[in-house]
Amino acid sequence: MPNLHLAFLWHMHQPFYLDWEKGWLALPWVRLHAVKAYFDLPYLLSQYPAVKNNFNLVPSLLLQLCHYEEGKTDLFLELSRKPANELSLEDKAFILKYFFSCHWETHIYPFPRYHELLTLRGGDHPHDIERALNEFSERDFLDLQVWFNLTWIGFGHRQEPLIQELISKGRYFNEEEKNLLLDLHLDIIKKIIPLYRKLQENSQIEISASPFYHPILPLIIDSDLARRNLPYSPLPPRFSYPEDAAFQIEEALNYHQELFFKRPKGLWPSEGSVCPELIPLVANAGLSWMATDEEILYKSIGRHGPEVLLKPYLALHEDSQIAMVFRHHDLSDRIGFVYRDLSPKEAVSDLVNTAKRLARESGLENPLLTLILDGENPWEYYADGGKGFLTRLFENITNDPDITSVTISEYLERFPPQEKISHLYTGSWINANFDIWIGHEEENQAWELLGRTRRILNGLKEAPQEARQAIMAAEGSDWFWWYGDHFTSLFDAEFDRLFRGHLQAVFKALDKEPFIDLFYPIKKPKPIETEESPVAFIKPVIDGRETFFFEWIGAGRFLPSTVGEAMYFGESIIFALYFGFDISHFYLRLDFKEKIFDSLPEELQAVITFCGFKHKTQVMFKPKAKDITKSLILVKGPFRLYGKDAGEIAFDRILELAIPFENLGFVVGEKVNFYLEFLENGLVRERIPRTGNILFTVPDENFEKEMWLA
């Protein structure tokens, strides 16, 4: 039996969630994974000093951990801190929508009270949220605030007296207990970087890096490189900034030096994405090795099997070279997706037996089996957070004389590469191509906006710090991951907003006006459910008043204050939006919240965007204008109508608007989506609905009859 050298590389990563306007992190995943995997895995490893591991720590994650250490916060933490008796209607809707965002089988179902709250809420559709708002008590909301943050606590702190007491108590928590729990979150975060630093100082782990904000380096070098593995996909206008790729690497290494007092020797290129042109950049940065997936190796040399995979290589390009190791795809994925359904004994037995079989089949004297996977995401799906599996794994490695756990650098120092790769294949660890991040209409639009924004800068080193940070963050892979049809989540719209927010921040740092396109969502909205849909023709008097009781009966109604359909931006300007029609006109009514409306600037602008089958029409007006009719503008392509030529509008107690379908340009039977935006100084203050559009069909004379028969 050859001596198997086993290298685990745990990849720890989060995108840069900074909301530039609010100054907080918009999503909680850095904090929630921190109190679980970011601490648990190295903590457990420290109890097995004979076992060596590798950790890839992405600087954008480390930067956000430091944000918490500096006293900064995230939106979910702020809403968790807020006393339950002070929660607004919008706060409650948000909490009901998003405070069940976890793996239910391991985070909710084992805990009766949390499960009870989920059952009480039901689904996350607008009508479910509206019903739950009426049924949840103050105690229910307080318990939900606690349980959402409690079940993320990993095994490294599950035995803390506070955690044991809260789990045992189960319900009817108080505000003091809640705040002690949230304080513990922040205390755990403060332990994480020192823990990794200590393990590295003890030579038990090697810490490698990824480029700072996790960009797909080959696409930053030249987006047209995607054609090498996607020859027939439509691509965006060319984006080619190899200097940005080099800078993302250099800044990552500098940040690691600052935090860990040691410069990394290894690089995990984001998503294992490589190309020949990357080799000089990595070598010039002083790195010794980089890693990617086995499929890249097989496509590079035209051979496959354990005898090919279980050894390092020297990749060459022009006058540069870099050592490379390649992950075993299947065995790495078993840890992430298969072993969670097995007992720890069965899982570890399968891993060890498979590893030893591969070593024997390789015929190599000192085979290296490299297992690379997400270090944070798998453990949410293990019933015990992975403790049983990892404990048994580390014990087995400690006691097995045929297995030597290694850091990648120490293995390469003892057994340097003997075989060369002269033509490194271009691709990623997913299907050996870049299909996830480029080629779809939404992805290409994002690349185009990134390119247009990047062109206003000269070199990154010369740019103002905030502009440099924002454009580098926008180059990150995660935004493109969520565009297109491959993946979706509750937070699609928020990822879209954050990406465009990074680009807007570039302009702000340069004191320039952002492109108007940056204020429009890239993610294609889906029609949303309204509280009430139009069921009859209406014919309101456009005078800004509810002239008679039945004036708006039969109209559709949307209540932004009662649905948790989007990320939290504060209280809505309006109570309700009504919409309807007769055979010739579209009608809109807005009921404003007086106190908020009075505080808004005189130049506040409202923009309604209608999207039909073939064209888009916008209707604009200023609600606080002295003569609101004069502020009314309709824009359809190159054509504009003003004032009474566009339609009728009035504002007294309510705002009422009537626009002829002829002016809008939509025909009978055409499906039309629309949304409303309020702009302050050219910036979107509020979008209604926050995500998605409201849908209606232009009616014919049989509309009411069809509604009656429906």
UniProtKB/TrEMBL annotation:
The keyword Iron does not apply. Pfam families: Glyco_hydro_57. CDD domains: GH57N_APU. GO terms for molecular function: catalytic activity. Gene3D superfamilies: Glycoside hydrolase 38, N terminal domain (3.20.110.10). GO terms for biological process: carbohydrate metabolic process. Keywords: Carbohydrate metabolism. Residues 7-420 form the Glycoside hydrolase family 57 N-terminal domain. Belongs to the glycosyl hydrolase 57 family. PANTHER family: ALPHA-AMYLASE-RELATED, ALPHA-AMYLASE-RELATED-RELATED. This is Glycoside hydrolase family 57 N-terminal domain-containing protein. It comes from Thermodesulfatator autotrophicus. The lineage of its organism: Bacteria, Pseudomonadati, Thermodesulfobacteriota, Thermodesulfobacteria, Thermodesulfobacteriales.
